[in-house]
Specification:
about 750 residues; alpha/beta; globular
Length: about 750
């Protein structure tokens, strides 16, 4: 029995990579210093994994920004607009990640999308010249040799050819057709190079295989791999899947010349049934994904051992594996000094999951009398209480009408038009303003009890005054208070609700240098006191313009937390929905006329297979949002916001949220969403993001004006709001003010034309 992991977090135990990259961006450190930091982190991570006794240690799982981008760069899939800048390779890489605005040109960043059903974002490679596709990078080889120097025979990890091809944005069909041949040739060359280096195993990640596959997808996969596998020579190939099962292709895969097949037995609902029905190939090793790579609760060894013993009926060639990359969980529980050990002992972050694999290996090689097994089973005895009978009773009393808002959209939107008296193409922002160093210092000082609640509040009130003044001077129509009291849009609410636990250093990478610290949903959720009310009332008292109340929706709070595993996601979400509903009604009673309830992560837990969309998710996720706002008056306008994702195929369901206004992050996808909005007769008013806030570049007035004209060519002017594509907390004030001035000026010019 051996052990493996798919890949390891790259941000470092204390987010060293994040800080090193940001320092480099600010020109406070050199390229050499950044590269040295990266090398040091890789060495440390390999050492930890080796010390934990893992047999298959990954390399090439490190990235400065994103592994999909790394793979595209490896094969020279780089758009001409970046090549035209004539930048150094590292600068070109970051130009694709963040956009570029400087002496060598001006261009936006690559589109960003959610990585399957996670909160990680990947960059969408652009291919506008397939002739250029070739093996041109050397990162995968360098990192393999680095590990070798450390005495580690690593298993290089790479996005598989099928998944990469499906994720690329091609200029046209001709480019796509040629790219298919060129990419196959490049992967063959990669195999040859790895063979020449003496690499023993290569892991090819093919998560796209867990989607519903059409006949043309299966044909494409076969075209790629029937040829590619004839070139593997001494190189052993592990085909690794995750985030689901391989029901559309599993029987066929048994006949391919793969040496290992990685199956997810955590999210793969049918993975075990497929093995039971079709068996497993004698000439292959089963990499069994049984340690959950997406949640932080300790593994129940009894359940894992039962699964392994069942699998052993079909094959003895089993490697114990993680269900997916450990990128999606925090680094280590050893940095958690404040969390009560009663809870902490029940958690396993990335480093602890290495130990779980080691323990299971040892138990399987001995017996269940092993002390490790007994110690694990003791964990699940006397678990702290999670139940609140009053929450259960409230859920039980819900009626159908509690999930329906009256009057219907068409009637209330006219009522709101007369009541709110907003101009055509109203301008606003998504919510947050820059979280400058003094804001973070003030919050930290209050948390550490170095300043009084009064001092903390007065500081934030001053920031709110300044923020409102900036917005009024710029000329925005609907204002926000800036959210200076909030650390994170989910963590903040979790801290003010019953049922949540919090970590000190439970950071998880969301994209690039952006890390989030998801709360842990431990028990039944309820609200004991108002959360945002005082801040919203204070902000509205300072302005004659409407100031939005800002909340995070129940589905996003659930999806951006580590959820419970002892109750259904539906029940957990409805508990949160009732808590946020109380906050919505308090805001309305205080005179807040527009309330934004962000559902940034609505798509995140959407099953990857369409056949499961409604029964397993949408049939309770959409009503949960309806429950939050169904009790408000017709005059109260409900907004929501959604982050980088693919919305086209669920727009009817998004319309069923029955919000009055929805803003989308659409700037990086070139507003492709607009055609679908038009096609499905989307009723909700929309604010497609007119510029990308994840890039430091400032869009010109002319650029925004051109974007507005494009939006107006697709949608009725009465349906459109004008806003950036996301919150502004990660940007600097200089960028924000310049960008918003251009946004307002461009809007005013368009209004004059209309």
């Amino acid at each position: 029995m051996q052990t493996s992991i798919i890949s390891y977090p790259r941000i470092g135990a204390n987010r060293e990579l994040k800080f090193a990259i940001e320092k480099y961006f600010k020109k406070q450190s050199s390229k050499e210093e950044l590269l040295e930091c990266a090398k040091s982190l890789r060495a440390r991570h390999w050492s930890e994994i080796k010390e934990a006794g893992i047999d298959f240690i990954p390399s090439n799982d490190f990235s400065f920004y994103d592994n999909v981008l790394d793979t595209a760069v490896l094969f020279n899939i780089i758009s001409k607009r970046y090549k035209a800048l004539n930048l150094d390779p590292l600068e070109e890489y970051f130009a694709q990640s963040r956009g570029y605005q400087g002496e060598k040109g001006d261009t936006t960043a690559l589109a960003m999308k959610k990585w399957f059903n996670t909160n990680y974002h990947y960059l969408v490679p652009e291919c506008d010249d397939a002739e250029l596709i070739a093996l041109s990078g050397d990162k995968i080889f360098k990192e393999y040799l680095e590990a070798k120097e450390q005495g580690i025979e690593s298993k290089p990890v790479l996005i598989g050819i099928f998944t990469l091809f499906k994720l690329i944005a091609f200029k046209d069909e001709a480019t796509q057709k040629l790219a298919q041949k060129k990419l196959l040739k490049a992967y063959i060359e990669l195999f040859e190079k790895l063979n020449s280096l003496g690499v023993k195993w290569l892991e090819l990640d093919e998560p796209y295989l867990v989607y519903d596959l059409e006949p043309k997808d299966l044909e494409l996969f076969e075209e790629f791999y029937k040829e590619l596998l004839t070139h593997k020579k001494n190189l052993k190939i592990l085909l690794q899947s995750y985030f689901g099962d391989l029901r559309d292709i599993y029987p066929k895969l048994l006949n391919y010349d793969f040496d290992g097949l990685g199956l997810d037995f955590v999210e793969g609902k049918q993975s075990l049934a497929l093995v039971q029905k079709y068996g497993f190939a004698k000439d292959k090793i089963l990499f069994a994904g049984l340690i959950n790579g997406k949640n932080i609760y300790a593994n129940d060894y009894a359940k894992s051992l039962k699964l392994v013993k069942e699998l052993q009926k079909y094959t003895q060639n089993i490697v114990l594996n993680t269900s997916c990359s450990l990128l999606h969980v925090p680094y280590s529980t050893e940095f958690e000094s404040r969390l009560d050990s009663t809870y902490l002992k029940l958690f396993a972050f990335a480093k602890q999951k290495l130990k779980e694999l080691k323990d299971l290996k040892e138990i399987l090689n001995s017996s269940e009398e092993n002390p490790l097994f007994k110690a694990n089973q003791e964990l699940f005895k006397n678990i702290p209480n999670r139940l609140d009978e009053s929450v259960k009773a409230r859920l039980k009393s819900l009626k159908k009408e509690d999930f329906v808002r009256q009057p219907e959209f068409k009637e209330r939107i006219q009522i709101q038009k007369d009541f709110l008296k907003l101009p055509l193409l109203p301008t606003t922002t998504i919510g947050s303003f820059p979280q400058s160093a003094d804001v973070r210092s003030n919050r930290l000082a209050f948390k550490q009890q170095k300043i009084s609640a009064q001092n903390y509040t007065e500081f934030n009130q001053q920031k709110i005054k300044e923020c409102l003044q900036i917005q009024e001077e710029i000329g925005l129509d609907v204002l926000v208070h800036g959210e200076f009291e909030r650390n994170d849009m989910v963590e903040y609410f979790g801290e003010n609700l019953q049922g949540f636990l919090f970590t000190q250093n439970g950071w998880v990478q969301s994209y690039g240098t952006r890390c989030v610290k998801p709360p842990v949903i431990w028990g039944d959720v309820s609200r004991t006191k108002p959360i945002t009310l005082s801040w919203s009332k204070f902000a509205q008292s300072l302005s004659q313009k409407i100031v939005k109340g800002m909340l995070t929706g129940p589905v996003t709070i659930l999806n951006w937390s580590f959820p419970r595993e002892d109750i259904s996601l539906k029940e957990s979400t409805e508990q949160i929905a009732l808590a946020i509903r109380d906050e919505v009604l308090d805001l309305e009673n205080a005179g807040i006329k527009i309330i934004q309830i962000d559902e940034a992560a609505l798509r995140e837990k959407l099953p990857l297979r369409k056949s499961d969309w409604h029964s397993e998710y949408l049939d309770w996720a959409i009503p949960a949002f309806n429950l939050v706002h169904s009790g408000v008056k017709a005059t109260t306008q409900i907004h929501t916001h959604m982050c980088y994702s693919e919305f086209n195929d669920i727009l009817k369901e998004i319309d069923a949220l029955d919000a009055d206004v929805i803003s989308f992050e659409a700037s990086r996808s070139n507003l492709e969403l607009l055609d679908t909005l038009k096609a499905v007769h989307f009723k909700t008013q929309v604010g497609p993001g007119v510029y990308d806030i994840h890039s430091p570049r400032v869009p010109s007035e002319e650029e925004i004006q051109a974007t507005l004209e494009k939006i107006l060519s697709k949608l009725p002017k009465e349906q459109i709001w004008i806003n950036p594509d996301c919150g502004l907390k990660t940007r600097a004030y200089e960028e924000v003010i310049a960008s918003l001035k251009n946004l307002v000026s461009a809007t005013q010019k368009i209004r004059e034309k209309l």
